[in-house]
């Protein structure tokens, strides 16, 4: 039996100069003898952070038991001290305990301790962005291309295990897109394949990608500046600055990124129901020039040792000016032979986005270690404007223009989001923890799209009323959750339940027509069981239930006629889809240099939201046309095996490998033809090589085998003609592969600066080839976007660590005050 817990331990943590160290980690460990392994092991009892004066305090400690107290803080060597409290000395003051600063940290800008590019845990994988050279100077889209298990197509669409995941930033859902987040502002990416009841249930069975932004709380100041250019002259630049002094912490980040993308595509469609039968061949050349701006400023105020207030703001701006030339050849098979026609459509368009938001947070810790309460209020709003001009020239057999058809489209969108969330965590005893929380997500959106055709008789553009719409909606989700987790020797468990209710209200402003869906309370249980087989082996089994609600563009009853071969329309009658996921994972480490994570998973989805092809009258062309809309299919399943390994071969070579083998099938019932199941696999390999002391090289390669067309849940309407996948038809994506390479050189004193040269898609092999067929047509199209993109980036880091830095500078004690790092 344990001795009575009534011991009391105090002390003060200082540096070598006798100055108090604030915010250091102090942990009490108790030494136990393990009868199974017949070895001594250390069990965590309590942990605290040192106060502003360096003081720490522990109470209710066991008497007569050997204890170990450890101290750690960034930039300092860890301290470890053994202590035993015996009567009558059950209260002990350790006095001043000194921590020495790391010499390498004092003399260099970059911490030389190397962190692994990929950390494997049973419930998530953590990808260290600092090790990702290829994405330097790019956006979060470039980062995702190198994250194991993540597949990114040429349009930037991200899939995880063949489904679209939910994007989080710093543990919270976000309305930002990947191309609005600078790669250099990201610290790591967490891949959570089977989230527990603690997380928002939205997103179906695809999991969560949590982007963790850099936020440095080291005392003093630090930051970096960066700049780059690509082979087309697109420039990027930015910087970060973090300041910590006393009770204040300030973080800031800014980015400007120019994009000059080029895309070529070919499409061949054979229409099976037209009279006469036709074959349409299209050749497109698209230029996308644009600029993205990103800015973030955050403040933390440490009100006391237990209370922290945070306020941060973000501002984003994007402006794109795409232009496209589309050549279309139509061969009509008449009884007396083939008649060919040719047209060329020139498109010039503009899309502009402006957004901003504020996040307020509060964190309260308590006397009991591990007990805390947090509150967050997150508001974000964005406005989008777009315009496009289409000029289609029709040529006769003599290659002369005999007719020109002019169209114009304008669009406006407004999006407002408010998320309120509070969480409470309380441990019970040494091994049981309760987590509870409430969340409300409120969204309001407006979308106004107008289409016009040119009337030569009046010389004016006339609004096509049936092809225009003004739509507004509100979408609210309310949630509550509770989880209980604990350990019984080597067995761990986590049981959770989440309840969510939602409502959707939409109105077609042009007609006054209203749509409303109120979804009842849905329950989302989760169960996680783990068994530690040995010190380097662990097994976990998990079951979760999640929901995927139809998004704005799935629901909006607006028909987009901008591309006659890819007309799209939403369906306001869609229901949410529910996914139940099972996963069994095994994690093994080998000598701390090698690790292997193997996962077997199965996902079953009911009321799957999928594409559906219908026919309807087209007021623009004046004839019946195919319409791509959405329906709820019967069900779908996905089963697979994922293997991820990390290997540190030696001091100069480390690598990671990911392979995902899966089989998926959609059952549509009598609504349309079901797609046959197909075994597919996806692989990704990353290697980092250090050479010549100051050089690092990274090689990244991906391979995607032939796979079925995925379910398309497009987040936007329109886009390049015929470039949206259509899951309503059967078909497949052909196998493709690609390779990226980057080399980094560090220089200047203490390796403060670096230059990175990267090349993506070295062999021009990332060609997106798709084949689809239905009762109405067969279609084959190929696309290639920005092959062999070369980017050159420069980065310079700076900083000083000293608790009294600004006081010293204000007193003019000399420019050498503080310690550079």
From TrEMBL:
Q: Which Pfam families match?
A: OMP_b-brl_3, Plug
Q: Which family does it belong to?
A: Belongs to the TonB-dependent receptor family.
Query: What is the recorded membrane topology of this protein?
Result: Multi-pass membrane protein
**Recorded GO CC terms:** cell outer membrane
Cell location: Cell outer membrane
Q: What is this protein called?
A: Putative TonB-dependent receptor
Q: What PANTHER family does UniProt report for this protein, alphabetically?
A: PLUG DOMAIN-CONTAINING PROTEIN (PTHR40980), TONB-DEPENDENT RECEPTOR-LIKE BETA-BARREL DOMAIN-CONTAINING PROTEIN (PTHR40980:SF3)
Keywords attached to this Swiss-Prot or TrEMBL record, sorted alphabetically, are: Cell outer membrane, Membrane, Receptor, Transmembrane, Transmembrane beta strand, Transport
Database matches in Gene3D superfamilies:
Carboxypeptidase-like, regulatory domain (2.60.40.1120), TonB-dependent receptor, beta-barrel domain (2.40.170.20), TonB-dependent receptor, plug domain (2.170.130.10)
- Report domain Outer membrane protein beta-barrel positions: 364-796
**InterPro entries, per this entry?**
Beta-barrel_TonB_sf (IPR036942), CarboxyPept-like_regulatory (IPR008969), OMP_b-brl_3 (IPR041700), Plug_dom (IPR012910), Plug_dom_sf (IPR037066), TonB-dep_rcpt-like (IPR039426)
Residue intervals of the TonB-dependent receptor plug domain = 138-205
